[in-house]
Design goal:
Strand content: 5-15%
Distance between the termini: 64 Å
Radius of gyration: 21 Å
Number of helices: 12
Length: 285
């Protein structure tokens, strides 16, 4: 933190219609909320007037989905509390939101540390509820801690072969997992969120698309969307599609799956061999 600077945190409720039943891509990734948040924060600074509007581009640090402790920042700023699912939970929108923020070279007079502690101590918490822990397929949640190696969300965008126990509960999943949010009482009857068109993925490709196109073609098709960002690779998409094929009814296209059994990518090769073995077992009398 530069001296005499401040952090402003933002909570953006992503759109999640009760009519929208998408299985393969999590709702928060169907639109590029990350880009939208950065754009809106720029607008806010310009419209706020001096001294905010006079700040230069080099003086401002905007961030979203960054390496900063964004959840802790937002909780300290009074936007919510960190629940047992390790996500920030807002009183109005639950955990159905994404975080962003900015660092600006202005010393904004705010609450003192003691007042921050008092405000957060008065905020509601999860209490004895452990629905998220009980519902997590990989058992990744325990005592307000997340074990990434056991988390489906983590593995949808991470390199390497997926652990065996997670393959068995993978389902049809290209990116993301919201099971811990789906069962959370704080997310019952929350508003739909903000509908945006930035980076909308529409139509959503079926599994055959990922298994019949090159990595370059796949990446190009998601340009400008949340799945087109650098941290989500085409190789992840192919591996995830192969694992999803185990429960998607692609038995009739085993030829597509077999083509990846000699892939140079060990994660893709491992997924292809696993799903072929599973499909063969399902066909045995």
């Amino acid at each position: 933190m530069p001296p005499q600077s401040s952090i402003i945190s933002a909570f953006f409720p992503f759109f999640r219609s009760t009519q929208e039943k998408i299985k393969t891509i999590a709702p928060f990734a169907l639109r590029n909320h990350y880009k939208e948040m950065i754009l809106r924060m720029k607008v806010v600074l310009k419209s706020a007037g001096p001294p905010f509007s006079s700040l230069t581009r080099k003086e401002i640090r905007l961030f979203s989905n960054s390496r900063f402790p964004e959840k802790q920042m937002a909780a300290l700023g009074g936007l919510g509390f960190i629940g047992r699912n390790t996500l920030l939970i807002n009183k109005k929108y639950g955990s159905r939101g994404l975080l962003a923020g900015m660092i600006i070279p202005l010393n904004l007079m705010g609450l003192q540390d003691e007042e921050f502690s008092e405000r957060n101590s008065e905020m509601p918490q999860c209490g004895s509820c452990r629905l998220c822990e009980e519902a997590c397929p990989g058992g990744a949640l325990k005592n307000h801690q997340l074990s990434r190696i056991d988390c489906l969300q983590h593995w949808t965008s991470s390199d390497g072969p997926v652990p065996e126990k997670l393959k068995n509960v993978w389902g049809q999943r290209m990116y993301g997992c919201t099971i811990c949010q789906d069962v959370c009482p704080w997310n019952r009857s929350v508003p739909e969120g903000t509908r945006i068109s930035t980076g909308l993925i529409d139509p959503i490709p079926n599994l055959k698309f990922y298994l019949s196109h090159s990595e370059k073609e796949i990446k190009e098709s998601f340009r400008g969307t949340a799945l087109g960002m650098s941290w989500f690779k085409s190789s992840h998409m192919i591996r995830n599609a192969l694992l999803s094929a185990g429960s998607s009814g692609l038995e009739g296209r085993i030829d597509l799956i077999e083509a990846f059994t000699d892939s140079d990518d060990p994660a893709i090769r491992d997924a292809a061999l696993w799903v072929l073995d599973r499909l063969r077992q399902d066909r045995e009398p």
